[in-house]
Write a structure and sequence with these properties.
CATH class of chain A: Mainly Beta
Largest sheet of chain A: 5 strands, mixed
Strand order of the largest sheet of chain A: 2-8-7-4-5
Radius of gyration of chain B: 20 Å
Largest interface: A-B, 32 and 36 residues
Mean pLDDT of chain B: 81
CATH superfamily of chain A: Immunoglobulins
Oligomer: heterodimer
Strand content of chain A: over 45%
Helix content of chain A: under 10%
Number of domains of chain A: 1
Shape of chain B: globular
Distance between the termini of chain B: 52 Å
CATH topology of chain A: Immunoglobulin-like
Structural class of chain B: alpha+beta
Number of domains of chain B: 1
Distance between the termini of chain A: 36 Å
Largest sheet of chain B: 6 strands, mixed
Strand content of chain B: 35-45%
CATH superfamily of chain B: SoxY domain
Number of helices of chain B: 3
Radius of gyration of chain A: 16 Å
CATH architecture of chain B: Sandwich
Chain lengths: ~110, ~160
Amino acid sequence: MTARIQVPREARRGDLIEVRIVIQHPMETGFRYDSLGRQTPRNVIHRFECRYGGVEVFRAAMGAGIAANPYLRFFVRAKESGDIECRWVDQENVSGFASARVTVSG
Amino acid sequence: MDRLTARGTRRRSLAALVALFAMPRRALAQPIMNPAPGIDARTINTPQGALQSILEGAEMRRGRVRLELPSIGENGHSVPMTVRVDSPMSDADYVRRIDLVSDKNPVPLMATFFLGSHMGRAEIESRVRLNGTQRVTAIAQLSDGSFWFDAADIVVNESACLDGG
């Protein structure tokens, strides 16, 4: 699964860091049928989590109500230089990972 | 007298028939079940059931939460959504979780976000799928356990679930 994460490279301590991520994934609802009339099984990224400096800061449990190629934007308060790491897994147990490094000054 | 009674019966059965068709289709297709404790709320197929599983008997009040959806969505496949909660996001007072509940989607609980004081700002943006014109509710639980909500109405011209779902 490919994903794009966008995080500012530098931040000042105490500032808000804006994290934006798009993951390429169909987020199959389980309500679609293919051309042969077979139901496409539901397969969504049901679990997403974000860690900053090894500490979990944000987690999402998603369902079929989240659009294909899920996009998330959220904030993290800058503390120390470290990695912002996102991990996710879909219902076929395929997992993904994306990370970005933030240098914190001040 | 005979005729009157016959008409009464017919009227009653007619009323029953009308009531049957007036029932939401989902209620006919899937009986509302009380899920066992601990069951994933994602399997609950009514918005009321999803709300109950979130609140677990607690009250929710309108306010502090702001849910932003466009008033008209060209198509329901991908609708931009922003939810923000008025909270200092300090260690003592922060938003614990935010749930998004759809009135009309086959799976009403669209997503649950778990937040914490590390985030600094309780604001999340994403894109949702909507099965037609409806009301969407965002429920936030704060660190003191209280629930707050906001609801937004959206007109969806092309539903995300036309293709059999």
